């Protein structure tokens, strides 16, 4: 009996040692660049939309309404590094595990009702990861589809509405750093660092953007204010199930085969 217990304990010790000895890449240099693509606008009169890679502006300018509404990506390019979180579940809210990504800001101004306005856009992001100090691998891309609705400025339901049609990118990939361990799995997750801005769209706001009630993540913005949704991303060795505080949102899945990111785009 004692011999059997000793054998079992020995196996457990060896198993723990094997897991702990597994060589992960612990730091990644990265570059994220993001642009708007495939933007669509409603029919209307007056000023044409002003479109650049990182900003979309719309709405007629008059003496009464002197400023167009706009949607802005900032910064256009993020260069930084992030540490690998060894584990899964809910990653700790610690700066070295939360890598800064882009922020989306809606500058919401009252515009005339006959104005051309934004209907939808796609944020196209390119992510280049360089496992420090090992060799980098090809950049990956993913798209985030956004539906937008400009509410009538008539005193009812005045908040404008955004819906994230493709959810949050949540990818996995395999990488061999050449130390003899072979391919090792890593998981990349993109999510908002301010969970108070984002929620499930319900009621009239879900109807405005054509999604089912209480099923699609999105946010609404108050007239006359600027609302910013900042994003971060993490790299972990196991899947993440939820976003850490202050948000508690389930991450929506994607997948990566080898080193090729798969991006789900909602297109007819």
TrEMBL record:
Residues 243-266 form the Ice-binding protein C-terminal domain. This is Ice-binding protein C-terminal domain-containing protein. Pfam families: PEP-CTERM. Keywords: Membrane, Signal, Transmembrane, Transmembrane helix. Residues 1-23 form the signal peptide. It comes from the Bacteria. It comes from Desulfuromonas acetoxidans (strain DSM 684 / 11070). The chain crosses the membrane at residues 246-263.
